[in-house]
Amino acid sequence: MEVDVLRRRLLSVLFALTVTALAFAPSIARAAPVKLTPGDFRLAEGAYSPVIAKLDALLKVTSVPAVLDSANRDAITGSGCKPGATNQVAAFCWESGDNATADWYPQGITSTADAYGNGQYEGRTAMFASWYYAGSGANKGVRVSFVDYADPAAPKYRHVLLVEPYTNASGQPDFRAVGVHAGGVFAYGYYLYVADTWGGFRAFDLRHIWQVATGDKDKIGRQSDGSYHAHDYAYALPQAQKFTASTTNGVAALRYSAASLDRTSTPDSVVVPEYGADGAGTRVVRFPIDYTDRKFSESADGYTHATEAYRVGIKSMQGATAIDGKFYASASAGSGARGSLYTFTATSGPTRHASALPIGNEDLSYRGPRNQLWTLTEYPGKRFVVAVDPKKF
């Protein structure tokens, strides 16, 4: 009897040690991703908004450099911003009001390295971050932070409101807020693409940034005096097109939870991860995109069909991208635990790098010219924008 008791106690200790080791292991390999039929996932291009030209004639059209030059907020770096990510190479934090607000939540991230291969847009180096509105009253939609990143030690930024142009009941050109979650964004040429959870993508034209009237947080669009407002933001960026998602052959609709550009693939491509709280059946899908017109590449049937698709089963996947054929996916663990970074290929992984990212991590974006894999975090009081070295995972 004493031997049996001792054996049971030893087995119990060994089991506890094994569980502890797994919980704190820096990397844990899982079953290889399941290949799906990529052609079952598709996008359909919608028409370019004719209202943009009409509003161009009524409003002052400005540029990305002008918005960056007008930055009215100072980001925080150095000792005042400590994300503590594994293999961290760069970081900044929002100023105190943006860090603490419960009205807006940061979600997506991209940079001018996505827009153009040389890393700049019209000679400027910048980051872009999307925030969705979670405050009271009318839904203010989505704002995007234009971050002047010419000096990584002292970034400055300004928020710009995303708007959807339309013709109002009086026949006047107008615009309204864009009510999407904006879980992922990527710049490509003069387009800023925003993930629309169940809709696919919305494309915003950076050549048509409008300077609008300010002074009232409740006003949006055309007012009775002919002025245009954007919830007290000085600039509005218009939606130009939609790329509507669908599936074929009975495949379940894809949840466009985030998005990233892959400039290391041939041709360039867009990686879409799917969020699922339990991870069951979550997928990662790749779509081709055309550098000549900055739009998704169409097949003969008029649709853009995916070129790769996998079932990866990653719980709470928030972002994904690919670098030279290797996929990277971020996964959150709620407001009380650090996030993980997963790596996998078409034939191996996913491998979990536990607690590699800060609490509340979201979208991913690869800044190729600097070999920086960027993410950002969402919870008030714990908001970081941070880059890690992907080659070390």
Task: Please provide a written account of the structure.
By secondary structure, this protein is mainly beta. Helix content is 11%, strand content 42%. The protein has helices spanning 2-24, 51-56, 64-69, 96-100, 112-115; strands at 28-29, 34-35, 41-45, 60-62, 73-74, 88-92, 104-111, 126-133, 142-148, 156-167, 173-177, 185-188, 191-196, 200-205, 209-211, 220-222, 228-230, 235-247, 260-262, 269-273, 283-290, 295-296, 304-305, 308-311, 317-323, 326-331, 338-344, 351-359, 361-367, 372-377, 385-388. The strands form five sheets. Strands 3, 4, 5, 7, 8, 9, 10, 11, 12, 13, 14, 15, 18 and 23 form a 14-stranded mixed sheet that branches. Strands 2, 19, 20, 21, 22 and 24 form a six-stranded antiparallel sheet that branches. The chain has a five-stranded antiparallel sheet with strand order 1-28-27-26-25. The longest helix has 23 residues, at 2-24. The model is unreliable at 1-26 (pLDDT under 50).
In terms of structural class, how would the helical and strand content be classed?
mainly beta
Count, helices: 5
Helix content: 10-25%
Low-confidence stretches: 1-26
β-strand percent reads 35-45%
So what's the overall shape? globular
Gap between N and C termini, in Å? Answer: 49 Å
**Overall pLDDT metric:** 94
The major pleated sheet works out as:
14 strands, mixed
